[in-house]
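quick one before i forget lol
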Amino acid sequence: MTVACRDPSEHSDAPGADDATTGAFSATDSGWSYAGGLTLANAAAVLQASLALPLPVDGTVDVSGLRHADSAALAVLIALERRAASEGATLAIVGIPQPLRSLATVYGVDELFA
């Protein structure tokens, strides 16, 4: 099951931003941000692409641009947390949409995103 994380009226003009199978992390001055969908259809590719980015210096990963998500999105976020730990860093994942927070609660991993 894929959940919409944003109201459909909050349409973005960015290419693929409203597509459940298109999305990416990007480096910003204040950390990383994510825009688009993050589902089983693209999770492996998104995670692989994230390896090319150095971890954000301030540790902030903003996922408020997440449009569609399923449990694979949680798996990607957990993998990022593990990567940071293995590199001696910590991440603060912010802007988690409520539907994804609810899914994290169901899976018992919500404390990872507190």
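fyi Residues 38 and 69 are 5 Å apart (CA to CA).
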